[in-house]
Amino acid sequence: MLDIRLSDCQASRPAPTVHFHLPATAPVILSAYFAISSLRTTHEFLFGALAELVDNARDAEATRIDIYTEQKPELRGGYTLCFLDDGTGMDPSEATHVIQFGKSSKRSPESTQIGQYGNGLKSGSMRIGKDFILFTKKENKMTCLFLSRTFHEEEAIDEVIVPLPTWNCQTKQPITDNPEKFAIETELIYKYSPFKSEAQVMEQFKKIEGDSGTLVIIYNLKLMDNHETELDVTSDPQDILMAGTPLEGVKPERRSFRAYAAVLYIDPRMRIFIQGVKVRTKRLSCCLYKPRMYRYTSTRFKTRAEQEVKKADHLAKVAEEKAREAESKARALELKLGGDLAREARALLRKAQDAAVMLRREADMKKRIQEAKQRALKEPKELCFIFGVNIAQRELDGMFVHNCSRLIKMYEKVGPQLEGGMACGGVVGVVDVPYLVLEPTHNKQDFADNKEYRHLLRAMGDHLAQYWKDIGIAQKGIVKFWDEFGYLSANWNQPPSSEVRYKRRRAMEIPITIQCDKCLKWRTLPFQIQAVDKVYPDSWVCSMNPDGTQDRCDALEQKPNLPVGTLKKDTKSTEDKQKQLTEKIRQQQEKLEAMQKTTTVRSSADLKNLPLEVGTRPAAETQAPRTSEKLQRPRSPPLPTMIKNAPSRPPISKPPPLSKKPTPIQIQKPAPTPPPRPTLAKKEEVSKGRTSAVKAAPPPPKPAPPTPRTAVAKPPARPTTPRGPPARTAQITDSYLLSFKDKGLLVEVKVNKEWFTGRVTAVEAGKQGMRWKVKFDYVPTTTTPRDRWVLKNSEDVRLMRPPSPESQTPDTLQGNEEEEEEGAAARRMEPDTTQPAPSRETTESLVTMMRTFLRYFFPPNFQIPKEDVNSMSAEELVAFPMKEYFQQYEVGLQSLCNSYQTRADARTRVVEEKSNSAEARLREAEEKLQKLRTNIVALLQKVQEGLLGNRTGVFSCSFKVKRGDRPEEWRKDKGLLVEVKVNKEWFTGRVTAVEAGKQGMRWKVKFDYVPTTTTPRDRWVLKNSEDVRLMRPPSPESQTPDTLQGNEEEEEEGAAARRMEPDTTQPAPSRETTESLVTMMRTFLRYFFPPNFRIPKEDVNSMSAEELVAFPMKEYFQQYEVGLQSLCNSYQTRADARTRVVEEKSNSAEARLREAEEKLQKLRTNIVALLQKVQEDIDINTDDELDAYIEDLLTKGD
């Protein structure tokens, strides 16, 4: 019994309490209303929600789906979004499963269908709108399913009520056992849906033309803050666009649903129509240059297979229990009956035994399935990677990862593409991953096991590098390769040239692959020169194929014959192995010789006999840093010749453990050397003060008394060279060793009047002095290189605060192998316990400030949701992708600045009509004036001699004077700002010369900017040509620029978060994590540092964790917004200046128009007066009458 209080459909009568009975399995009831509400948050990518409904049509074996909108001004959003397919449809019981949470009949390991979770229809529709209604036909039954959040909210119902009425397709009569329930369901539909009567509902069923199919209508669409829908259906009447998405910097599949639907499936077998126009779906593997397939096998993908094994094991155990129970019952019944041979007893026993046998067979079968899946768990999984070059649009590159033919991830950069260079640029990869290998998330926009997905991307990166080697583009020249296909610009994002020869070259390499509109088979067309620019119709069928073997629908589809490549692992040759072995032998021999050159010191008397140049550094502290330094910096610059030939200090043996007896000290034996030179010794501390240091200086000091744990070593002799004295060699060696310590220093370098932070990665001695190679943390790649050689003592270089010895974590923005090794070595160092670590409260405050910074400057459309920042831990913040964050922020800032130029252009449209009208009227007046003058001259020449002839001569003379003014009028055209159409593109320029040609007036236009490779700098054009137009005048209005992010609420949130007490139940972040947070915080402050801030920018480099916590963030944000406002105002000022120039041109055109009209009117008046003197009875009142009269006189001739 279900008791639901419903509002009556008519407002005039009171709301009754409706009681009706429903069976326990009725589809009308769902679990709870909050479950429906939560579905709308599943899809962050809106097109992914639309794709869910397209997936349902594909799984229903539909051959066509229409996605269109219908205008409904009375609904929220103003229109409904409809999905109509010709699939198998659903009967009432199947419609019940559709609306139940997590109910799916497609869930099986071997299934090739996309849906697996049973939530696609609900999550997709609830993300797009608030309500949806579904109409479906199958087996002569018409079923309507209605799910409305509006209904539940207005009726305040917690349980979800889903009306599900059914009609007969032939008779249109209800199919129900409970008329009262049917009446209530239809009443709800008529009240809360857009269809208010049964006739309107039947009209929707008529749209399903076949015997089966489904129509889903979503309405009351979600709105954005500007009260517009998230989907833009007006800008392009043939597409559905993502509202508010900029044209630049966004992939077409993220902006256009037509582009996204074209690549949604790896092997499209369904026609998709958007707004009535067919989508040209693509098979990516057939759209690439030199495609190649690589087979990849791995045993790493186990998560999904292990889940299937556990599931099969559970089912096998359950079946085994059932079989044992049935067998036990059969045996018990047999014992109970004993020798009873009655017919009924035998039948009962046989029935029990048959049931036991059947359950035993089922248990054995499930046991075999479990064993097979267990064996398959150890078997490697095979995937096929397909790579090819996108020569049509090279900027659209990356990996397309599909799951059961459905696109999950697109434009994923892997391997060499992550480095951002031209290597592997333009290469597209395609892979289809089955469910048994990787399982997608519920929204089908990612994979559930992130670890295994990253392993897949690494594998694709390795194979991508192999493909790049196999096709040999780098060997022939990357720039030359792209030039061959029409990519003549250095800008990577510029489209290729549209010249015929380049189009033909691209068409020759990639044959056209098109899908038959009838049989849905893919056909590859042979290359034809005349078909390079041919546009094929949407209704293309196999009979139109010029290939005679593939011009019938019953012909088999040809599978792509792709060459197969193999991944070749780098193996060392015999010569390389021999060199490596020789090098190891040489190193061991040097160590052995160094150990033989040691002397045992047993007393202080032995120490006095030693040379003065000794050092007491322990061997472990002397040799270990050198060894580690050599391993950490494999890319060190080559040594100078005299340093390279000088022998290095041999290793010193490790000191023995501490004992009560004095231990003999190992001293290196002196070799015959020149007189001792001053050496540089460094004072070092040894634990518990047991180690002392001896400093060598020019005056010989007394040797320090030996201690049980002190090792004294004598530097080896340095051989003399004929090029210079030994002292010079030693001086260079010491200076080089000192400079070698500069590696890893944090510095700032001034480039183009801006300071950029970086790290010293290499040191070398040059002619002007010591040079550093600095690798920058982050720079605008378009203007500044990633690294640069600078002089150490230059004014453009300054040291930052040196890194603490506890943690030398490399920057998160940049990094290479050297920095990773340095970071690893630094983490292995023992922390300095003399320096107090930042307190837990300080670290928590740093984490809170970091979150506030990330939220305040958060760029739009970033890969990580903004809401996730609030829950990030310290370790997650350290691993935050700052490089992508800064790049996305710059894209948003550039888009903001570009919007001012766009708005300025939009304002000029207001003046455009006025300017164009003035120009048109000016041309018309000049034409009339010229025509009138010509007619008058012709007329007066036909008039007889006499008094009128004399007057005619006077008039003709004056007319010639006026004709002489034409060059002066031409000169006024010089300097005009115009736009000229060249190669289907408009370019701005200025008129520099004017001349009269056979076809009319000609202008010589000098362009402001054109691609010099395709278009000349200037060009002669006809003044009245359609390819020439005056630039639009501006409007005087100005608009206030917007800010990108930030408001007082976020600042208050940050302040409240800083006042919160830290959670002491969680382990405190490590010291290295805190140091990394401090480094990241400094980087953020420097990157967004506002001009004229009261704290100098240089002081940020030396701020401690406590000083950063006390940083005045509110004032910082305010000053940043002032600077951003100033930047936006500068763009606005430039736009206003351009607008004023256009207005001046418009005013000049209007002034010339008024002058021409005055001349025309004066000439007309003089002509009328002249004619009236010749013939007094002439009565001319209008300009048209005057023109007609003159034309009539010229026609008659007398």
- From the alpha carbons, calculate the radius of gyration and give it in angstroms: 42 Å
Q: Tell me the β content.
A: 15-25%
Strand order of the largest sheet: 7-6-5-8-4-3-11-12
Extended strand count: 32
- Indicate the percent of residues in helices: 40-55%
On the 0-100 scale, what is the average pLDDT?
Answer: 75
Question: Quick gist of this model?
Answer:
The chain is of the alpha+beta class. The protein is 40% helix and 16% strand.
Give the arrangement of secondary structure elements.
Layout (H helix, E strand, L loop, with lengths): L1 E4 L11 E4 L12 H6 L7 H14 L4 E8 L7 E7 L6 H8 L20 H9 E10 L2 E8 H7 L10 E3 L10 H14 L5 H9 L6 E9 L9 E2 L8 E2 L9 H4 L1 H6 L8 E4 L2 E2 L10 E10 L4 H35 L5 H36 L2 E9 L8 E6 L2 E7 L14 E7 L16 H22 L1 H4 L1 H7 L15 H10 L3 E3 L6 E3 L39 E2 L8 H23 L1 E4 L2 H5 L10 H14 L8 H5 L19 E4 L57 H15 L5 E6 L2 E12 L4 E7 L10 E5 L5 E3 L17 H12 L11 H17 L17 H5 L3 H61 L4 H17 L2 H8 L3 E6 L2 E13 L2 E8 L10 E5 L5 E3 L17 H12 L11 H17 L17 H5 L3 H62 L8 H14 L2
Parallel strand pairs: 3-11, 13-20, 15-17
Antiparallel strand pairs: 1-2, 3-4, 4-8, 5-6, 5-8, 6-7, 9-10, 11-12, 13-14, 14-17, 15-16, 18-19, 21-22, 23-24, 23-27, 24-25, 25-26, 28-29, 28-32, 29-30, 30-31
Helix pairs in contact: 2-4, 10-11, 22-27, 22-28, 24-25, 24-30, 24-31
